[in-house]
Amino acid sequence: MTETDLRQFVDPELRPLLDRYGPSALDATSLAEARAKRQPPPGMKDDLPVRTEIGLIPGMPGDPDVRVLVIAPEAASATPRPAILHIHGGGFVMGNPDSMAAALRQWVLKLDCAIVSVDYRLAPEHPFPAPLEDCYAALVWMAGKAADLNIDPKRIGVAGESAGGGLAAGIALLTRQRGGPALAFQSLQYPMLDDRTVLSTPDIPGCGAFLWTPEMNVFGWESYLGSPPGGEGISPFAAPARAASLNDLPPTYIGVGSIDLFLREDLAYAMRLMQAGVPLELEIFPGAFHAFELEPRANVTIRSSDRRLDAMRRAMASPQAD
C-alpha cells in the first residue's frame, strides 16, 4: 500500500501533521539538517508563573558536566515538592530539553512539581553508555541536592518520550542495579525499548509508516549502540526489553499509538511488567503514529496528555512514595 492509502488508518486530526512534515527519512547525510529543525523557534515566551534555570551539573566520574534545565513554580512551597527527571526524545541522535520546555513549564503548574530535563550527549558521536550515564548523573544530582531544590527525594519519578522513554526505562533498570536513588514511577511515552524490532516487519496496517519508520529505526539504534542492532550481546541498559528481570521496578505508565512502530515492543514490555507484579497503566491511542503529540490541537493528543499527567499526579501522591 502507498503512503496515501495508509493514511486511512490515521486519525483525521493528525493528518495535517503529516502534510507539514512530509516523507520521513533520517540517515547520516540528513542528520545535521534534522537536528537543526529540532531547535525550538526563538522568542518563545509565556506568562506562566514558572522559573526555568539552565545549569551544569557534575557528570559521572570521568564524564563531562551535564547541561540541565531546572523548571519549578515561582510560588514558594512550605513542603518539598515531588520532582520529575525528564528525558527528551529524538531517536538517540537529535533533540534537546529546550524543545520541550514549553510543555514542561505547563507540567510543573499542573502537577505542582519540579522538573530537571537533561541535555544528554547524542549518538552517533557519543554512543551508549554516554547518554544513559548523563541521565543517571542527573538523577543522582537531584537526589543529592533535594534540600536545595526543595524536592522530596522519595517522590522523584522519571519520564521520557520515544528514545527518551527508552532511556527512562534504562535509568529505572540502572538505578535498581546500582542501588541508586529509588524512583516513584516511570512514565514512558511511546518508548524505544527493543533494538530487535529492526529484525521484524510491521504487520499492522499503517504501523511504522509515519514520522519514525523501520529505516529510521535502524539508523537510530545503530548510532546508539555503535554496532548493528538486533544481534547478540546488547546491554539491557541500552535496550531495556532485553532485561532478564523487570521485578522491583516502579509503577509504570506506557502510552503508545495504534500505528506506532514501537507498538509491539511496548505491549510486550507492558505484559512483562505485569507478569513481574509491577503496577502498570497502558494506553493505546487509535490512529496515532509515532510522535503524534507534535499536533497539540488534536483531541487524541489532548487525551494522551491528560492520561499521562493524571498517572504521574497519582504516582507522585501515592502513599508508597512517601
From TrEMBL:
UniProtKB keywords: Hydrolase
Molecular functions per Gene Ontology: hydrolase activity
Alpha/beta hydrolase fold-3 domain: residues covered: 84-293
A family per Pfam: Abhydrolase_3
InterPro entries: AB_hydrolase_3, AB_hydrolase_fold, GDXG_lipolytic_enzyme
Keyword flag Transferase: no
Keyword Cell membrane part of the UniProt annotation: no
Protein name: Alpha/beta hydrolase fold-3 domain-containing protein
Taxonomic lineage of the native organism: Bacteria, Pseudomonadati, Pseudomonadota, Alphaproteobacteria, Acetobacterales
